[in-house]
Design a protein that fits this description.
single chain, 5 helices, Tachylectin-2, Chain A, four-stranded antiparallel beta sheet, mainly beta, 41% strand
Length: 485
């Protein structure tokens, strides 16, 4: 061997060692995130006024979930269609950056499914955070705009790809290709969720069969024989496996033997497959959204993903108060869990608002009007949480409905109604009140309007409104007591 070749070999060897050391460093950096102590789920709740926004839930064991933020939404989209579905939680390998990527779609606005699929948004909505609790304003990334004839961009996911050192964002787009218009899975690569490569086809089924709702999970140690597994909705819930994200994938089958399909096989018709690894063991849950029956998520679990026959159904789970639709789960470190629960985990007490001069009656909503009634049924119609004021959280309160999460008491034309928070400054001001000593009895309470400070919450013929208070009758009508629910 010549001296030059020897030097070249040394250089190559050094480069290999450097690459290996960087890979080991990356692995150590990722490993430093463990141990995980809890779970965070991002989801939407349905096609209600506020249902297509970002909600969060927490679990200690991965099977029993508690709604965070008292069941109210956590993030609201103010861009694109002003609604979001199918949120995906993404963490950087170092655990120092997080993203939420979601479908830009709001069916509740009156959009038909045909319009949404064929003439919908080709952008995704992205939020970014450095700590999982303080999030940027939402922004749009037009990932599918360059796809000829693209009608939409649905059900996005993102995963870090160690082979390329960046993230793969993938989603479903309905578009014509090779003479067939249908949903296919496309992907782009990005390092910052701001700029991205040109969209490329990722998954396509044969004939006219479309595919949506793909989600990939990485399996450390390649349990079951592969490093990555993906589940997709393509008439069935199909499971595939690979050892590289952008490499070739092997079909492992579907869930028809469990009586579960995406429609083609009948049975329990589901969508939105959502992977989750249990923190304390080599076991995985695949959560499936039972949209056809409106029952929300159910888990099937496996300790070996190498065969679909290893999955079994579970009954030992609870999903909390709200219906959870297509989302994603992120395992949390102790530090992350403390931050998340510190911000959204505190549960405010449930209260009733008792009338001073009709003490057998309580404030309640009925068909979204607000009145005083005795013997309220259902009891939840008279239950509220006094949360920090939407327009001013210092010294002011808003009345959040217990059985209509995201709905608040507000005045409209001076009349009190129960209405969903639409994110506007006008709504926030109309739903905010200052709690002051009772006008008729100082040990009770009265509630002064935030944006009409000369008016107070009061009842008149048992109906709630805001009025100026000028006499003893008005002072009695405007006095209440906050009692336990």
């Amino acid at each position: 061997m010549s001296r030059a070749l020897s030097r070249l070999g040394a250089v190559v060897a050094a480069a290999c060692l450097l690459f290996a050391s960087l890979s080991v460093a990356d692995q150590k950096e990722a490993a430093a995130l463990e141990p995980f102590t809890g779970y965070l789920m991002a989801h939407f709740t349905g096609e209600s006024t506020n249902g297509e926004q970002i909600y969060l839930a927490h679990s200690d064991d991965g099977l029993h979930w508690t709604d965070l933020n008292n069941g109210a939404l956590v993030l609201r989209s103010t861009v694109g269609t002003r609604g979001v579905r199918d949120p995906a939680l993404v963490r950087s390998p170092a655990g120092d950056r997080y993203w939420i990527v979601a479908t830009d779609l709001r069916i509740a606005a009156g959009t038909s499914w045909s319009d949404a699929a064929n003439r919908g948004s080709t952008s995704l909505v992205v939020w970014e955070s450095a700590d999982l609790v303080n999030w940027s304003a939402p922004r749009l990334i037009n990932v599918a705009g360059a796809i000829p004839g693209a009608g939409n961009a649905w059900a996005p996911e993102a995963i870090y790809n160690p082979a390329t050192g960046d993230y793969v964002i993938y989603w479903a787009t309905n578009s014509p290709r090779d003479g067939v218009t249908k949903h296919r899975i496309w992907y782009v690569r990005t390092s910052d969720f701001l700029s991205f490569t040109a969209p490329q086809p990722f998954i396509e089924r044969g004939g006219a069969q479309g595919i949506i709702d793909t989600q990939i999970v990485e399996v450390p140690g390649a349990v079951g024989g592969y490093l990555y597994y993906r589940a997709s909705a393509d008439g069935h819930i199909s499971i595939e496996a690979a050892n590289s994200i952008l490499g070739s994938w092997t079909s492992l089958g579907n869930l028809s033997h469990l009586g579960i399909s995406n429609g083609t096989g009948g049975g329990n018709v589901v969508e939105g497959p959502m992977w989750m690894k249990f923190n304390d063991r080599d076991e995985w849950a695949l959560w499936l959204d039972q949209f056809a029956t409106g029952r929300g998520y159910m888990p099937i679990t496996s300790t070996n993903l190498g065969s679909t026959r290893n999955f079994h159904t579970r009954s030992d789970y609870g999903m909390g108060a709200s219906r959870k639709r297509h989302g994603s789960v992120l395992s949390l470190t102790a530090a992350e869990e403390n931050r998340v629960l510190g911000r959204w985990g505190a549960t405010l007490p449930v209260n009733r608002i008792q009338s001073y001069n009709f003490q057998d009656r309580y404030v309640r909503h009925a068909d979204f009007d607000v009145r005083l009634d005795a013997n309220v049924s259902p009891a939840q119609d008279a239950q509220f949480r006094l949360v920090p004021g939407l327009a001013n959280g210092s010294g002011y309160v808003s009345f959040a409905s217990v059985n209509y999460p995201g709905y608040y008491l507000r005045h409209y034309g001076y009349d009190l109604v129960l209405a969903p928070d639409d994110g506007t400054a006008v709504f926030a001001a109309d739903a905010t009140f200052r709690q002051v000593p009772g006008l008729a009895a100082s040990s009770w309470a009265s509630f002064q309007s935030y944006n009409y400070p000369d008016r107070y919450l009061r009842h008149s013929n048992y109906l709630l409104r805001i009025d100026p208070i000028t006499d003893a009758q008005g002072r009695g009508d405007a006095t209440f007591r906050v009692v336990g629910g």
